[in-house]
Automatic annotation (TrEMBL):
InterPro entries: MADS-box/MEF2_TF (IPR050142), MEF2-like_N (IPR033896), TF_Kbox (IPR002487), TF_MADSbox (IPR002100), TF_MADSbox_sf (IPR036879). This is MADS-box protein JOINTLESS-like isoform X2. Keywords: DNA-binding, Nucleus, Transcription, Transcription regulation. GO terms for cellular component: nucleus. CDD domains: MADS_MEF2_like (cd00265). It comes from the Eukaryota. Residues 85-175 form the K-box domain. It is found in: Nucleus. Residues 1-61 form the MADS-box domain. The keyword Signal does not apply.
């Protein structure tokens, strides 16, 4: 009969869990003893049960094995630290070389440190400079066009404002002239002493303007 495979998960039943722990612990220790005997391995096992009880097995002194593990761990940490420091030095060296190369290229683009360059390197620098100059000229032209457009828009706005001011001034001047004419007519009527029958043109003018006609005594 085929043995049923047990699903690996926590056993809910407390009694079954304790029985399984006891059987598996003995089996684990037996396997460790066999491995140590067959392969001359140095083994240490430490197990705490769910209730906190300690079970241990070691092929020699447990403290010696733990001390050996500690020394091995410290050595591994030192080795990892050495590798990390070496990697940082390599990265710093690569960064320094890259910075030096970029600085030299910048000087060459500015027309410096050109000695020792061949025709191919000079031609490459020329292409780079021409490309950069083209981008600069395009950016400058775009800015000039933008400024010209803004100035034209401002010019149109100023012309519209000027036209409005002229119209307002014309309206104000016409109103002032009309008021002056009315005042002159009124004064002349009061000083001349004319009657409405003698000068109907004046009264007609006053009536058209909506003003009271002040006639003199007849």
């Amino acid at each position: 009969m085929v043995r049923q495979k047990i699903q690996i998960k926590k056993i809910d039943n407390l009694t079954s869990r304790q029985v399984t722990f006891s059987k598996r612990r003995r089996g684990l220790f037996k396997k460790a003893q066999e491995l140590a005997t067959l392969c001359d391995a140095e083994i240490a096992l430490i197990v705490f049960s769910a209730t906190g009880r300690l079970y241990d097995y070691s092929t020699s002194s447990m403290m010696q094995i733990i001390q050996r593990l500690k020394m091995h761990t410290e050595g591994s940490n030192r080795f990892r630290q050495i590798l990390h420091n070496q990697a940082e030095c390599d990265n710093n060296g690569a960064t320094s070389k890259e910075l030096t190369a970029l600085t030299l290229e910048l000087k060459q683009l500015n027309g410096e440190e050109l000695q020792g360059l061949g025709m191919n390197e000079l031609a490459r620098l020329e292409r780079v400079v021409e490309s950069a100059l083209g981008r600069v000229v395009k950016k400058k032209n775009d800015m000039l066009i933008s400024e010209i457009t803004k100035m034209k828009t401002r010019e149109i706005q100023l012309e519209e404002e000027n036209a409005m001011l002229k119209q307002l001034a014309e309206t104000t001047r016409n109103a002032a002239e009309l008021g002056s004419s009315v005042e002159s007519i009124t004064n002349s009527d009061g000083l001349g002493g004319r009657c409405p029958e003698d000068d109907r043109s004046v009264s007609d003018t006053a009536l058209k303007l909506g003003l009271p006609f002040a006639g003199g005594d007849c």
